[in-house]
């Protein structure tokens, strides 16, 4: 079963991902000794250094943008769950129509704290919905998560992660209401950046949704057992512009 979401206009840019390029499946581990951290970021090799991600989004400096529409058609199920060395990642299926171009949804993964900041503020968690086009272009929607009410869909992801950590194979998540991982209003901030893990490839487009989604503090704490420091440092904006779609 599919559920449709409509986002008021997306820009003429292509959504490209700032996420890990690795998809190797491994067992999840709740041991903090196995956490992937970004403590040695100075050792990363840059493809180029002028358009890197993440950034701090300064809301007083964003530029209004009028874009075309985006239609998301997501299957309501998680096809897999894995720890790829960068984050907990859930395989997903579906499509996104962006400015009359089609992208296939592949996965969502999470960073703690948030990779991007809004007016200097980190959120407890940031999710990246990753889409790919047939020509190799990648499209990502970033979602901020904050402490509040318990989130059923995120709870299902945590339960699947626990099962995988116990060594269970081939885990799927049936009846996953992906809409619970997205805010009701899908206005966004947009800028051109890069991947946030090596090789830090640029010409990546980011769309960070303005409204946050609530998770319970208990759910956040449970995620932190797997990753509590898998976000990259804030990068310089340089001469780039940041757009807003309300």
Automatic annotation (TrEMBL):
<comment type="function">
    <text>Reversible hydration of carbon dioxide.</text>
</comment>
<dbReference type="InterPro" id="IPR023561">
    <property type="entry name" value="Carbonic_anhydrase_a-class"/>
</dbReference>
<keyword id="KW-0456">Lyase</keyword>
<dbReference type="GO" id="GO:0004089">
    <property type="term" value="F:carbonate dehydratase activity"/>
</dbReference>
<protein>
    <recommendedName>
        <fullName>Carbonic anhydrase</fullName>
        <ecNumber>4.2.1.1</ecNumber>
    </recommendedName>
</protein>
<comment type="similarity">
    <text>Belongs to the alpha-carbonic anhydrase family.</text>
</comment>
<dbReference type="InterPro" id="IPR041891">
    <property type="entry name" value="Alpha_CA_prokaryot-like"/>
</dbReference>
<keyword id="KW-0732">Signal</keyword>
<feature type="domain" description="Alpha-carbonic anhydrase">
    <location>
        <begin position="34"/>
        <end position="246"/>
    </location>
</feature>
<keyword id="KW-0479">Metal-binding</keyword>
<dbReference type="GO" id="GO:0008270">
    <property type="term" value="F:zinc ion binding"/>
</dbReference>
<dbReference type="Pfam" id="PF00194">
    <property type="entry name" value="Carb_anhydrase"/>
</dbReference>
<dbReference type="InterPro" id="IPR036398">
    <property type="entry name" value="CA_dom_sf"/>
</dbReference>
<dbReference type="InterPro" id="IPR018338">
    <property type="entry name" value="Carbonic_anhydrase_a-class_CS"/>
</dbReference>
<keyword id="KW-0862">Zinc</keyword>
<feature type="signal peptide">
    <location>
        <begin position="1"/>
        <end position="24"/>
    </location>
</feature>
<dbReference type="InterPro" id="IPR001148">
    <property type="entry name" value="CA_dom"/>
</dbReference>
């Amino acid at each position: 079963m599919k559920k449709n979401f409509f986002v008021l206009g997306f820009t003429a840019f292509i959504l490209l991902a700032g996420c890990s390029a690795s998809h190797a499946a491994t067992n999840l581990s709740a041991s903090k000794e196995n956490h992937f951290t970004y403590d040695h970021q100075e050792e990363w090799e840059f493809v180029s250094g002028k358009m890197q991600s993440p950034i701090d989004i300064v809301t007083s400096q964003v530029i209004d943008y009028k874009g075309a529409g985006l239609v998301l058609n997501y299957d309501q199920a998680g096809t897999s769950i894995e720890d790829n060395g960068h984050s907990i990642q859930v395989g997903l299926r579906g499509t996104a129509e962006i400015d009359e171009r089609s992208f296939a949804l592949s996965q969502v993964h999470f960073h703690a704290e948030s990779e991007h900041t809004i007016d200097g503020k980190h959120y407890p968690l940031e999710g990246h919905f990753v889409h790919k086009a047939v020509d190799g272009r990648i499209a990502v929607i970033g979602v901020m998560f904050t402490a509040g009410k318990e989130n059923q869909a995120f709870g299902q992801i945590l339960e699947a992660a626990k099962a995988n950590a116990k060594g269970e194979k081939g885990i799927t998540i049936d009846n996953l209401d992906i809409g619970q991982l997205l805010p009701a209003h899908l206005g966004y901030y947009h800028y051109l950046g890069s991947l946030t893990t090596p090789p830090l490839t640029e010409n990546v487009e980011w769309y960070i949704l303005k409204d946050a989604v609530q998770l319970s503090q208990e759910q956040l704490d449970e995620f932190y057992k797997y990753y509590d420091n898998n976000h990259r440092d804030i990068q310089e904006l340089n001469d780039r512009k940041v757009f807003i779609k309300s």
